[in-house]
Amino acid sequence: MQYYLNNNLFFVTCRTFLRKKYLIGDLAKESALSRFLQIEKGFNINFEAFSVLSNHYHFLLYLEDGQLLKRVINILNGGISYDVRRITKVEQPFWDKYHNSNVSDEERKYKVMGYILGNPYKHRLVKSIEDLKNYQFSNYNKVIAKYGEETIRDMITNVSNLNWEI
Fold it and tell me: What is the pTM for the complete model shown?
């Protein structure tokens, strides 16, 4: 049984079934991106950080009502799988179980943010940390606008120095 704390920062990872690369093309990733933006607008919330990769996504999200997390994930997963199935031939099932953890302090928050925002670099979807600015399937540039480029680079570098373990 999972508990969803109120006034909490959630770190969520959701992988595709058997880690299949269902999100390999730009159209699939664009679907995921549009679902993240739809959730922000529809629930009047802001993801602290998110990245969409070829076979998984990560996000960091503060929620006053922790029970809302299940709805956010259902909307993301349902919408993405519906859209991707319309444009590709995807086997079923689409998603594996999601994993979430509570982020209870600032140090862990910044470590998780660095992990999420640097994930396209980790998985070689971009060639350098500098190229993350051009990776459109995350909110990297929005987070830079909030915290500054040097701070975000430090967050990512500090995580990569730890072999991407969080």
Answer: 0.92
